[in-house]
Design goal:
10 strands
Length: 347
Amino acid sequence: MKDKIENIKRSVLEKVKKIEDIKTLSDLKVKYLGKKGELTAVLKEMGKLSNEERPIIGGLVNEVKTVIEDAIKEKENEIKNKELQEKLSRESIDITLPATQIPTGAPNILEKVIEEVEEVFMSMGYDVVDGPELEEDKYNFELLNIPKGHPARDAQDTFYIEDEKVLLRSQTSPVQIRVMLENKGEKPVRMICPGKTYRRDSDDATHSHQFMQIEGLLVDKDVSLCDLKGTCDVIAKKLFGEDCKTRFRPSYYQFTEPSVEMDISCFNCKGSGCSICKNTGWITVSGAGMVHPNVLRNCNYDPEKWSGFAFGFGAERMAMLKYGINDIRAFYQTDLRELKRFDRRED
């Protein structure tokens, strides 16, 4: 039986040297070391041996089994390394080739414009304040000098939620009202309130049922229209360049008196006339005015002692002008191919 075991050992080692693939090597392992393998069959015949021979033959079988397993494992590693080298040689990589360009998103232009405005006003001591988008009628209209039945309510096409008492705010002015009421007519107010507003508009290139509005309010003593003009000059120059000019034209709003519309000089044609400014040299960007005395009284401020100005403009309109965007819907799309042309990360 010793000779048989030695013959198995020599035969397996010779065959292992000639094998060139993993499958043949695996078949060989099963043939000799499997449950029905030749070396296993030798162990089954040990019952015929004497008590003295059994431990000797058993030890020899285990020794041969270990030698075969080591030889097979070594050959397996050799074959795998060879296959790996062949694969690497076939699939060589030129590290000097350009890398694959993976599409990525860009910073939101609308948020960037809002942040620029916030930074300017914070540098002048203004607070950035937020408020509820689901608002009460008294804050959105009544305390702003727009009583029930006033035509301005129809003009704004409000989204009412509950019996014309609760609504989606049609402007961010209610935030100003809340701040003045909190101050109880005793402290100055210097604030801006950027945020979402909602109106019943049909969505198209220049209108949206939901848009971002930025409103500002300053209430103090001895505030005049000149202060408003100076503030508007600062923000216009920040957004559109130091050579940008502003002008006021008379207008009418329920919550300001006097009321004005603010124009900026056309940044595209520098006043000579083009399609952006409709050949006028000026672009209307904002509504503003001195806070109406009724609004001050409604918020517990004595108009004989306090005065102030308010202004408001659409963030989308400012961004469209600044970056040459002609469709407001571009701000809310997620198609990277569409947004790529608005990537202004280096601005």
